[in-house]
Amino acid sequence: MNILALNTSSTSGSIAISKDGIIVFISYLDIKVTHSERLLPQIDYALKHCKLTIDDIDLICFANGPGSFTGIRIGLSTVKGICMVKEIPLMPVSSLELLAYNVFGVERDILCFVDARMSEVYAALYSPNMKEIISPCSSKPDKIIEKIDSSIIIVGDGKLKYKEFFEKSKLNYINALPHQDIGLASNLISIALLKEKLPEYDFDEISNLEPYYLRKSQAEIMKEQASK
Description:
Blueprint: E1 2-7, E2 13-19, E3 22-29, H1 35-49, E4 59-63, H2 69-86, E5 90-93, H3 95-100, E6 109-117, E7 120-126, E8 132-139, H4 141-145, E9 152-155, H5 158-161, H6 163-168, E10 173-175, H7 186-194, H8 203-208, H9 218-227
């Protein structure tokens, strides 16, 4: 099985490819170029580098949010278009679950804590074997922290912005290492390979798939406020 994986849920982007269960390509870009400009060229480059064409891909994995509204929208429209034209199954994964797998197997609960701006975070708490304890949500940082009473490891860029909340708390916590705060697309492949059953191609399911935003965009909020 050949898998193409993409993560466009932040300003950076990541692409990975596996052939027969072996990851053969990983890219990570954090440059001032929009996903709309670089995504398709990067996919094309990755496939050529691996001596593959899109017709050789058996599954596409995609980090469907939460995260950057624009990045997710561009990435999702891209993978939906490819999957529907080429009849390739699509496996969406929460970007918080993707981050949690960076520290999979630790003997602590895993708190994913991502800066969502507007003084909020995207957060979720998982057990060491990836069972949801606190489901993915958008929240004020202190509201999440006060719900936790277990030993945790914190992964995600929110732990730096809101470190004073943790320092003032009585939590037993450690921080993940900087490279573990990056949601590489290769993690999506690992998640897929751990599945007992992978999705089959379903045109309707793919066409109806929506981004996992967790909250309204700033533009939507401002529009609602203006209409009141």
